[in-house]
Write a structure and sequence with these properties.
Elements lengths: L11 E7 L10 H16 L3 E8 L3 E8 L4 H22 L3 H9 L15 E5 L2 H17 L14 H6 L10 H5 L2
Antiparallel strand pairs: 1-3, 1-4, 2-3
Helix pairs in contact: 1-2
């Protein structure tokens, strides 16, 4: 049995967002940049702390902590903005087959298109689970065959934790949160 996430302002969350049909849109720079820009904005506007991330061709994983808002509200903001921006880019590029796919596979008839499957947020209750999730995030590109060394994958926070080099977007240091 799976239990829903429970909002707790002291918790970290392991977030997974997957594109409907596991479409590989995020391998394209314009779409991937929308995701990066959204994460930068949410962090800059102090809506969340971002501790770890990876952007894969069809999905992404995050470790985050909302600031002064519920996890559902934060994910709604992220999902809505990124979906609208990506759909706008698809229209601009006249990607009619993809637009048709996201229309035919929409999750909610009130919307013309759906881009994301349900975005999942799982509470992280222990430091052991936190470290397992960070390891999982950073290994994801290697498991998918996307690189030689995990800290060389550009769209991940692995370089920060493995080499102390800031990734493509600024993140918060989980060691500060943990007091280590």
């Amino acid at each position: 049995m799976t239990f829903p996430s429970i909002h707790d302002s002291t918790h970290l969350y392991f977030v997974t967002a997957s594109l409907i049909g596991w479409k590989h849109l995020l391998s394209k720079p314009a779409y991937r940049q929308i995701i990066l820009d959204s994460l930068v904005w949410l962090r800059k506007e102090k809506r969340m702390f971002l501790y770890a991330f990876v952007i894969m061709p069809s999905h992404l994983h995050l470790i985050l902590k909302p600031i002064d808002r519920e996890i559902g509200d934060l994910l709604q903001t992220f999902g809505s903005y990124t979906a609208h921006a990506i759909l706008k880019e698809l229209r601009k590029e006249k990607k009619t087959e993809l637009l048709k796919f996201f229309h035919e596979n929409r999750r909610d008839s009130r919307h013309k298109h759906s881009l994301w499957q349900d975005i999942q947020a799982k509470n992280i209750f222990t430091q052991k689970v936190l470290m397992q999730k960070i390891e999982y995030i950073h290994q994801n590109p290697l498991v998918a065959g996307l690189g030689g060394a995990r800290d060389d994958y550009l769209y991940s926070s692995a370089c920060f934790y493995d080499k102390d080099v800031m990734p493509i977007i600024e993140i918060d240091d989980i060691r500060d949160f943990l007091g280590i």
